[in-house]
Design brief:
Order of helices and strands: HEHHEEEHHEHEHEEEHEEEHEEEEHE
Radius of gyration: 19 Å
CATH architecture of the largest domain: 3-Layer(aba) Sandwich
Number of helices: 10
Oligomer: single chain
Number of domains: 2
Largest sheet: 7 strands, parallel
Strand content: 15-25%
Strand order of the largest sheet: 7-6-5-10-13-16-17
CATH topology of the largest domain: Rossmann fold
Shape: elongated
CATH class of the largest domain: Alpha Beta
Helix content: 25-40%
């Protein structure tokens, strides 16, 4: 088997496993050394074909754009609702919180509309539209350049407002993430997410497991900045172990 054939076989084996394979499993299946497998995985990672973790290897799926807001709202809705409920239980009285653009943030908003003690900051128009007539908490929309497809705002005007705030908890969304980074196909989102991280005391990633092991062109931020991740139980066990090793508090719902 040539190196190219072996790397193709690695992709097939992981894909057929239905989740992930450990490096030891790949060594045994292909009857090659650990060094050979690790060398192959490094090359596959550079091509964004796999996501390698200390506990195993997953297929990475490249995304080039995000679904529309309408499409996303019906995708994995029960998981998003559970994530939103779990996130809402972490919000202490009189907090200033940030809700990142996305339907998981909207799910969170549905669990805190009856609060009257919060300052809720967001760049998501759907979140504001939902809360404006329902909540007695203070609302701040950061404004900026409008992204019509996902009904949010980005750009320098948005970051200027965020920089002027001291946020207690930021709930950050993701269209693609792995055990190292959150990535995005939209470069305009990078600046907003990074400024939110700089302006927030606690940073929590809220994203269902269907977004895991996907990768997009632009790195939004490293998971090293994240305190907690709230996701569903569909997250592969190997990923759970890798995140625990990074000492990230993982909440599975």
């Amino acid at each position: 088997m040539t190196p190219a054939e072996r790397r193709k076989k690695i992709i097939e084996l992981i894909d057929n496993s239905g989740g992930a394979l450990s490096i030891n499993e790949l060594v045994n299946l292909l009857n090659v050394s650990h060094m050979t497998i690790r060398r192959d995985l490094r090359l596959l990672e550079k091509q964004n074909l796999v996501s390698s973790m200390s506990a195993g290897v997953l297929i990475s799926k490249k995304i080039h754009s995000e679904p529309s807001h309408t499409a996303k709202e019906i995708m994995n809705a029960p998981q998003k609702d559970s994530i939103g409920k779990a996130a809402s239980e972490l919000i202490t009285p009189n907090s200033c919180i940030y809700l990142d653009a996305g339907t998981t943030s909207l799910a969170l908003a549905r669990h805190i509309y009856d609060r009257d003690d919060l300052t809720i900051v967001t760049n998501d128009f759907e979140v504001v539209n939902y809360l404006v007539d329902k909540t007695k908490s203070a609302l701040i929309h950061v404004g900026g350049q409008i992204r019509k497809d996902n009904r949010s705002s980005v750009g320098p005007l948005a970051t200027k407002i965020i920089k002027s705030l001291s946020i207690d908890i930021a709930f950050l969304s993701a269209s693609s993430w792995d055990t190292e980074n959150v990535t995005t196909p939209d470069i305009e989102k990078v600046m907003v997410k990074q400024v939110v991280i700089e302006s927030s005391i606690h940073k929590i990633l809220i994203s269902d497991s269907s977004k895991f092991a996907k990768v997009a062109t632009f790195k939004a931020f490293s998971l090293d900045f994240i305190d907690k991740i709230i996701t569903d139980k569909g997250l592969p066990v190997q990923a759970q172990k890798a995140l625990e090793r990074k000492e990230i508090d993982l909440i599975l719902v």
